[in-house]
Queue: 3 jobs
Job 1
Amino acid sequence: MPQRRREVNPDNVQESRSLASWMPQISSGTPRAIAGGHVILHSLALIDECMTFVTTDAGSQEAQPGKYDDRVMALGIAWQVRKRPLSRGSTVRPQGW
């Protein structure tokens, strides 16, 4: 089955670029939230990923070689998203979604 090509909405592209600006907040806010008891980790897999999430010599933050950081990033994004107000209005989806 052929895949449908989705038109790119310039507003969405701008928003996705702004996600890169979240990285410092994710990397500093999430450990503070865990240390402060605001987030309780129940997943052993997430705890393992947290233990292997490091800052490289170049200053970037990522999983150690051979390890994963998907859960760490998901937790960090969720922690930042919870600060945004909920939308109570109707959601308008782009045509074709």
Job 2
Amino acid sequence: MSKKGKKIIYTNDFVHMLAEMSGYTIKDSREFLYAFIKVFEYCAENDWDISIDNFGKMWVSDVPARKGYRPVPGVKGAGEFVEYPPSRKVIFSLTQNIRKPKQNNKEN
């Protein structure tokens, strides 16, 4: 369980769920998942956006240089101001149909 009490599905469980829901073997489902991840990595490295209907969109975003504060763990009020260099980050956004899942008809 996560800190918020929600169940976490790890890779092996995800692969088994994928195999069960798709009708493919566990081996084929695992190979598909790893190939899917490789495609995302390749697109991120080449600064390509990915948009998959009814799933989501991934893109690479430039993060400008910024100033920040790096605290010293365990020492209240101790730390230093630092300049973080510009960087790039990968962003993934789920489509609305996944972000707002259907409500279960459970009585509270």
Job 3
Amino acid sequence: MSPDTLNISNTDRVLNITAKVKDKNSGVNYLAVELAAKNGGAEIYTTLSLVSGNANNGTWKGKIVIPQGSAAGTWFINYLSINDKAGNNQFYSTAEFAQLGFENTIEVIYK
């Protein structure tokens, strides 16, 4: 995710999400990510699009807009869902995503 800090004091800000995903069998059909404010009350969902490679080994990108006026503080990936072309779904919770060693938080600030 980039950037790791978003200043939303004057305008909405865009968080870019990039994922490199492999599925050696049927191939990835889609990815979905939900970002949530740690203090609760705000969740933002997006899907990612394949931008390079192919469904079996590709780079997927998406954007989440954090609106001006959103909750300040730590935001985290609430879940990541990966669906393949065979209809299988792999769901990663916040804890599972962190255990895999992936970056999963950003700071939203007003300055």
